[in-house]
Amino acid sequence: MSRIVSALPGRIRIRDRALRDRARLARIEEALSALEGIASLQPNAGAGSLVLHFDAARIAVEVLEAKVDAIIDAELARPHAPRRRSLKMQINRGAKLGMLGSLAASLALAAAGKKGAHAITGGLFVACLGVHLGVHRRSLVR
């Protein structure tokens, strides 16, 4: 499958969502820079793209496109380790699950008329909400 989104004389743009992985993009960049006629590479992991500048007099565009597709297909076929969530995001996930569970329990206990248990689960909800807001405090005060 071709991931080349535009090809002009002397310039090829490659785009794929998998290129957002910086390690993968670096390996592809290394393999492409070894090809004959490549002048420069401009990777952009945020956009998942790579712009390749080449000397059109030294290599035909069709030949280069075939080589580029082969290199990218080979790299993307390699298995890679899934990205591990940061400790901060793991804590936040636990807080969100705690909020969800304590809210459900609190509402069920309120409907059953158990005021004491309802208050305890409500307090647990507020504690989990505090953790969640603490994780996202920087984006809250912008």
From TrEMBL:
Transmembrane residue ranges: 94-111, 117-135
UniProtKB keywords: Membrane, Transmembrane, Transmembrane helix
Highest taxon of the lineage: Bacteria
Record protein name field: Uncharacterized protein
